[in-house]
Write a structure and sequence with these properties.
alpha+beta; 4-stranded antiparallel β-sheet; 5 helices; about 40% helix; elongated
Length: about 240
């Protein structure tokens, strides 16, 4: 009787080990299936024109007479406003920024005597406009201001920006996703597998660069928008 019970117990133990081994094997195979995926990136690019411009230029006048300097500079500003509005900008797109007044006699470390032009006034004119083509053209016409008697002490290239990213995002995400899918399908075909779905996806980032350049050059009128998505696709034999 004891021997019979021992045989039953041994049989049950063997069965338990076999079932456990089967379950462990199935779990291992299922785990291996869960790990089967391919990570691909999809790229979409679109060339767009900037829709906002910021341009700064500095006007300068100097004299021993402070009042005369101020009057001369006011005439210069009026001439610039007139020239820009005649070129197509609106008056509210032309403003004034930094005003710098220099009294050379007040400089503590002055090494040379001041014979004339004691006062120097620099006035920065700021242009903010969505008329990017007009601003871009005006940059090449500063010599016209000189003909009007306006002294342009210096200016920086206009900064052009693109603010319409939200409008192109859906289209570009769709295009980048299609590109990622095509790459995944090619991988699956080459490896004898099938795509069964998306495991995870990351929209990635959007970047804006200068068209025809790998850098973000702010003075470029034409921009290149790039979208990159990263997607993990499940694979199955």
């Amino acid at each position: 009787m004891d021997r019979g019970l021992g045989l039953v117990a041994a049989a049950m133990l063997a069965l338990g080990v076999a079932v456990s081994g089967y379950l462990v094997g199935e779990g291992f195979r299922e785990g291996r299936k869960a790990e089967r995926y391919v990570t691909v990136k999809g790229l979409a690019e679109k060339t767009v024109k900037a829709d906002q411009a910021l341009w700064m230029l500095q006007l300068t006048r100097a004299s021993d007479d402070l009042g005369l300097v101020q009057q001369s500079l006011e005439r210069d500003v009026a001439a610039v406003r007139s020239f820009f509005t005649q070129s197509g900008l609106s008056a509210d797109e032309i403003g004034l920024a930094r005003l710098e007044v220099i009294d050379q006699l007040a400089q503590a470390y002055r090494s040379q005597p001041i014979n004339d032009n004691r006062y120097i006034i620099n006035q920065t004119v700021k242009v903010e406009s969505d008329k990017v083509d007009i601003v871009n053209g005006l940059q090449n016409q500063t010599n016209e201001l000189l003909k009007l008697g306006v002294i342009v002490n210096g200016w920086s290239p206009a900064v052009f920006t693109y603010n319409g990213l939200n409008a192109v995002k859906p289209e570009m995400i769709a295009e980048a996703t299609q590109a990622a899918r095509a790459s995944a399908e090619q991988f699956a075909e080459d490896s004898g597998s099938d795509i069964t779905g998306i495991l995870r996806a990351n929209q990635g980032v959007f970047s804006i660069q200068s068209a025809g350049s790998a850098f973000a050059e702010p003075e470029s009128l034409m921009k290149k928008v790039r979208a990159v998505v990263t997607i993990d696709y499940r694979l199955e034999d």
